Amino acid sequence: MLPSLSPTMQCVGADALMLYFGDEISAATGAQVHSATALIDAHLGNDVVDLVPSYSSLLVIFDPLQFTHVEMTRRLRAIFQREAAEPSTGSRVVELPVYYAAETGPDLTTLAREAGLAVAEVIELHSAREYQVFAIGFAPGFAYLGELDERIARPRHASPRERVTAGSVGIADRQTAVYPADSPGGWNLIGRCPTRMFDPEGDPPMPVAVGDRVRFKPISREQYLALGGTLP
Q: Distance between terminal CA atoms of the chain?
C-alpha cells in the first residue's frame, strides 16, 4: 500500500478527472505526481487517452464511452491501494552543461551584485544542487526545475524581454529553467545550455520528464561551442 498517493479527485469535464496531491510546490509533491503518472500509465495504459502532470496535480483524460467518472475513480483508487512505490524511484538524473558568462547570461553580473555574491559563487550555488522537474509547460520542452538556493532566488523581470535565445538558463523566484526555443521571457538569464530541450523528431523528444532530477555542469566557452552552442 502507498498511503502517500491519496489524491483528491474532481470531475473537470465529461472525459476527465483532476487529481490533486496538495497545494504547495515541493519536491515531495512532485514525486507523488510522478509516481501516480507512472502507476496509471503502467496499469491503465490504453484505457486512458492522456495524462497531463503539473506541479501538484495530474489530469487524467479518458474515453467517456468506455468509462464513467465513478468507474474511472474506482479504478484509480484501486491502483493506488494495490501498488507500492517509493517517491522518485526510477527517476533519472540528467546532466545539462551550461556556459555561465555575461555574454550568454546578461543578468548574471547584476544578480551576483544584488545577492552580495561573487559571480563564481552564483555559479557554484546554481550548479551544486539537484533539481526536480516539477512540470513541463509554457512551451514544449520548458521544464520547471526546483528548488533553487534562496540566496540566488530572484523575481521575474517586470518587463519581459521580447526575445530570449534558445538554451538560455534562467531564474524566476526559486525555480530555474532552460528555454527550449527563441521566445519572449522575463526570467533572469545567467548562462546558456547547448543541449536541445525539445526535438519533435527525437525519441524521446525531450531530454527530461516530470519526476526526473537535473544537475547543471559548468563548462567553458570552448566546450560550449564544441557542443554546438551559439553566441550572440
A: 53
